[in-house]
Amino acid sequence: MRNHCQSTILLALVGAACASGATSDISRAPEPAAVVVEAREQTADQQVRHVLNRLAFGARPGDVERVRGVGVDRWIALQLQPSRIRDTAATRIVAALPTLAMSSRELFDRYPLPQVVRAQMRRTEMSRADSVEVRRVAQESRRVLAEMQIAKVARAVASERQLEEVLVDFWENHFTVFAGKGPERYFIAAYEREAIRPHALGKFRDLLGAVAKSPAMLFYLDNWQSAVEEGRPTADCGLRGRPRGGADCGQRPAGRRGAIRNPQSAVRNPATRRRGLNENYARELLELHTLGVDGGYTQQDIVNVARAFTGWTLEQPRRTGGFIFRAAMHDAGEKSVLGHRLTAARGIEDGEQVLDIVSAHPSTARFIATKLARRFVSDDPPASLVDRAADTFRRTSGDIREVVRTIVTSEEFFSSAAYRAKVKSPFELVVSALRAMNATPDMTPRSAQVVARLGQPLFLHQAPNGWPERGDAWINTGAILNRINFGLAMAGGAIPGARPERWPRYADLAAAARATQVDGVITGLLGGEASVETRRILEAGVNPLLSDCGQRMADCASAATDSSIVEEDMMPPTRRARDPLSRRQDLEGLREIIGLALGAPEFQRR
Predict the structure, then answer these.
(1) How far does CA 118 lie from the centroid of its chain?
(2) What is the tens place of the pLDDT at every residue in 301-326?
(3) 158-180: buried (b, 16+ CB within 10 Å) or exposed (e) per residue?
(4) Which H or E run contains 516?
(5) Which of 359, 376, 402 is the last residue of a domain?
(6) Alpha helices of 80-178 — where are they, by DSSP H?
(7) Which of 220, 316, 532, 591 is the most exposed place for a label (fewest CB within 10 A)?
(8) Range of 312's domain?
């Protein structure tokens, strides 16, 4: 029986998806233009739930009625113009987390790395009091990353600009960086604030350029160390197009090491500090950021792109300085990239031209269109939709807003096949559950730690390919058990700000008969749609997957993924005594039904 039920739930999760949503403060927003809507496969109610699942992080109580009232298409049009939406909740969240507004240098000065403090103390004789101070500094330095993680969850829960938050999450993952590498955590706040968020619905070329010059990306992929190889001309001060920062000019001295040929070596081994031509950023720019792995580039293109970006570096990188172009590090020789000639005797213009070339390349249009369609429609988006979205990308010179509009107003987006066709990532699951339960934003690290426990530690994906967008990557037996445990923990009040009593229907259902409670939960949390198996579990109060568990839910849960194992001074593991996923929740009545519903396949999908 256990194996049959286990297989049933696995198939339900992998093969179809449940609710996610958003609201908009539309009272003061200009009226969007009327939209002509053709017949769609989804019913009117399904369309409402669908847009709240895909263009937002889950429906809060009352959202379905609000979107139905304003109209699905007007709601979409408004979400595509986030500057028109008042977002006081998100503003308060940012104001309550002071590190989000600090520059990287300010963060480093205020919250230094423990190893930096330790090194300073070693210059003198470290006393017991010094050891206590190092521990205190380590605790404080966690705040730099912790507040970004807190903000990511809290804004996704509370922001009225839900589509903007979805796209910020998408682009942060597309242009992923790893906060566990050296001082990288000190660059993350500025990275989101200055590179990602302002361009999430803008021109792709502007977004690409902001990322290329961001200290977070320059440090993560080691481009700040990439320099002209010996014997090649540099961007001499006297050459045409004199670049900024050309105080140290002339030929690069001989005797340095050559190119780094393995793009992963420096990423996975922060100790790698070889100087010379570094291909890490060039390779990921072509393979992951623009053209895609089959985008038509060659190894020679990678080498020449790397040459074009020599000298794009950081001012005082160990002190979290900003972007600077250094002429003496730049290879000023002639280059050829994707059939385009980059003339000799130039400086920063080489890198800028490369960004122009790749952002306008047809492979980039198709690659970005495919990834956006995969995020919003299905793991294997229809070719017809990708074709139209790629055409919009080319026609509008990479206008992200218009590409997204093409996707989310399409007949493919509103098809029956797309409805509940995506499995939620751990981040989406936690945020959608918090929104469904009408939770207040959690201003502690606890909710972010639950996301990590489910397998997706925020800003801590080590490889440059980001977290998977396909649902099958998130689903296995251990992951499902963890997700069920999470639903029960949420219903048990173990997640800050998410007491079941905050759910508006709780008071009316608390004293009702079991059958009425089940109907109310299915209507309120599962959109009124539940399989026979899910209804049976809610009525019986027992999930077959958990029937063999002991007193500790950890007996049935899988271990945290390797991706969540990071240096202790950055994100210490949640203590077992406080980990809501490792304790059995002794629930009964309505709480039990709510917990089981949050762990049901219908809620795990979007």
Answers:
(1) 33
(2) 999 999 999 999 999 876 777 999 99
(3) bbbbbbbbbbbbbbbbbbbbbbb
(4) helix 514-525
(5) 359
(6) 88-95, 104-110, 114-122, 128-158, 162-174
(7) 532
(8) 217-359
